Amino acid sequence: MRRSASAFAACALALLLAAPASALLSVTASTDRDSVEISGNLYLTVTVSGDSASVPEPKLPNMQSFNVYSSGRSQSISIINGKITTSVSFTYILSPRFLGLQTIPSITVSNGRENAATTEMQVTVTKAKQPSAQQRPQQPSRQQRQARGKTAGRGEQIFLKAETDKKTAYPGEQINISIKFYTSVPLSSNPQYVPPAFKNLISEDLPPVRNGETDIGGVRYAYSEIKAALFALNPGPAEIRSATVIAQVPSEEAIDPFDPNFFQKFMAISGQQGQSREFSTEPLSIDIKPLPAGAPPDFSGAVGNYTIAAVTDRPEARAGEAVNFSITITGSGNLKAVSAPKFPDLPDFKVFDTMSSLDVKKEGDLISGKKTFTYILVPRNEGKKTVPPIKFSFFEPRSGAYRELQTNPVTLQVEKGGQAAKSVNFNTGSGGAPVTASGSDIRYVSEKQGADALPFLAASVLALPYWTHAFPVVLLLLCFWLARMNRFKLANPLLFRFRKARSEASRDIDEAEALIKTNKPNEAVSVLYDSFMNYLSDKCGVKVSALTIRKAAGLVKSRFPAATDRSLEEICELWAALELRHFSPEAAGSEGASDLAKKYSLLLELLEKELR
Amino acid sequence: MKKIFLALILALPSAAAAYDRGELAEFNDQYRNGQYEEALEGYKLIIAKEPANQWAWYNAGNALFRLNRIGPAVFNYARAFMLDPRSPDIRANLDFALRQTGQSLVPEGAPAALHYLYYLVSETELKASAILLFWLACLAGAAAFLLDGGRGGAAAGRVSLAAAGLLVFTAVWLGARQSSPFSSSGVVIKAGGTRMLSGPGEKFKTYASAPEGRLVRILDTGDEAYYEIGLQKEGIKGWALKTEIERL
């Protein structure tokens, strides 16, 4: 433990000592040629190199001999043994203003700690070659020009005009603006150009300044054209405010050749500088449309037309070794605004910071180029490791649709790492840095088999036919009725005995007939006798033991007024017959049990009609 | 008896997995390899066999999301959420997909815990609970009547009353859920959104549009070709083609 701590301290000290030595800022400058025609252009490339991911921009000195236009930048990053070196090339177009040997002064750059400077350079500016007769455009003679100039109004001799190639655009879509300064008269000095201010737009110069001649309304004009690419920031109105040119215009006072003071006036005019006049463009409005809905989830605002490619700096590596993985987005559009595609989670690699480099071209007035995002991947284990496709979405204004691209999977053969590889460490910041979310995405698909118990059970219950749910209701109602019945029965026993008297008596008759068939007439008569007593007891609401023939007849007559005398007589007769047969079978005579049963049955039918 | 019942309950999900277990792994592998269309077809097969399988809906939503079909993705996530609103994965992906279309699962200003409680039980589970409580209340009531006057009858009566009370509570909860954005609603599935007309037909004026993935309340289903839909947030309603709205 102590040994590792001391080794760590030694490493840290070595790094601290090495830091100032490696912190080198340098700048170089070069031109694409040593001589240039006065009507031509010269490319100046200033390259700034440093040991950090970003380097400062150079400060261009005041160059009187040239008009200077920025023409883009390109950046390259190299990582060797974990050491980062950044090199940014700034390109400028120089339009010479004077003939002869011209000097490009020293260009300086500073990052606050260090300063660097280029050496002076010299460029020879030569006269423009005369175009051949065929190539030269038909230019009107000076006399013709003067004649035409007279036909045109004096106020139209010089004017400034601005126009855009689009009136509506999407945010991030390139809009080209052309600002042309026309003059049909020679100017006293170089005009001063004040570029327009922009609202809801950012601009990128499109050098160089174009010069030429044209005919407008029969008047020959010389013009200078400045172009710029504009990119809208947000949906809504965008505005290009007035551009201004301040020019020294010759005096408008005409000299009469027959004036006596002609020579005095002529000398006075030729000696003066002319009038200083301002020419401005009308403000222009552009309608910025919102991007259509339905943007892909990984869309981060890139607008244009792009392709994407991914590559590693080598196909093989050892576990623990750093590998540069670059994603390059190439195409036309505002590449500065293109952000890095979302990098997928790679369990097989450690992934370190993103660095981007930009290479912008402005050919054909179209902002294009490439932007490269470099990641440092450190494989964790040996084997065949694959970086999955990386998605990138952009909006294509031409088709008005979103496009989704993805890189091909990149495979890396990783071998077992050695000790040296294991010690590779990228210092990506101070230790213990907080975890910051760099993006968000949907969660992964579920591996679960089938539905969970509860939702499935719920769905199963709901799948039951509706009529099945009537079952508990029917059961409840039935039980409720039974309970009511039971209570009613308990509360009214005599009533139930009254209602059930007939059915019990019929059952007894059936039993007696069965006994008769088995040749048991005495038992059958006993059954009939008991049954008849019970029947009368149930109908009259009196106990059997308290019932006599007379009392029974009286009760029947009093309780059931509809009972006829015949019925009462029949009751008495049957009672007597049953009693006789029941208590003294020998004295009963010939009347058989079967006859008694029939008589009892007939009497029951009669009584049921009357005893209600 | 209890053990048998428990075994039956536990066996239900496995019985539900009527499809070949290797199929799901295959579909997930296709998803992993970026073959989202193929994976989606597989998930649809599972849905056809098991409409109550929330994970089939969820995985289909994922595949659709990767295919940049945000409307159908929202619909599938919403179906999964309606089946299993407690799943953190389903909630996360539904919320993520809704946020792509300017919506969110938890309404602005609403406490997340309260929202979670509100959706603790799915509508299907609430309805099933109501049915089971109804059965319990009836059967316990029947037992109470049958055992009228006895100690068992009184106990059954108390169970019946408790079940009836819970049934009322469930019914109130279910009623409250009718105002949920997922109740009587649909999702705009047409890429680029759907037009809202002032009547059910092309002769009526288009006066609004609902973007793809937007949850809409379905107000009327009577017309053959059009739904009457409402956008609660904006307070507008109109008619949209049934082919452009997927009913939840």
Descriptive notes:
The complex is a heterodimer of chains A (612) and B (248). Chain A is an alpha+beta fold and 612 residues long. Chain A folds into 4 domains: 23-126, Immunoglobulin-like; 142-288, Immunoglobulin-like (Sandwich), CATH 2.60.40; 304-422, Immunoglobulins (Immunoglobulin-like); 490-610, Four Helix Bundle (Hemerythrin (Met), subunit A). In chain A, helix 10 runs antiparallel to helix 11 (593-610). Chain B folds into 3 domains: 2-105, Tetratricopeptide repeat domain (Serine Threonine Protein Phosphatase 5, Tetratricopeptide repeat, Alpha Horseshoe); 123-177; 185-247, SH3 Domains (SH3 type barrels, Roll), CATH 2.30.30.40. Helices cover 56% and strands 14% of the residues of chain B. In chain B, strands 6-5-4-1-7 form a 5-stranded antiparallel sheet. Chain B has a two-stranded antiparallel sheet with strand order 2-3. Chain B has 248 residues and is α+β, with helices and mostly antiparallel strands.
Outline:
The complex is a heterodimer of chains A (612) and B (248). Chain A is an alpha+beta fold.
CATH topology of the largest domain in chain B: Serine Threonine Protein Phosphatase 5, Tetratricopeptide repeat
Q: Give the beta-strand count of chain B.
A: 7
Strand pairing plus helix content of chain B: what structural class? alpha+beta
Main sheet characteristics of chain A = 5 strands, antiparallel
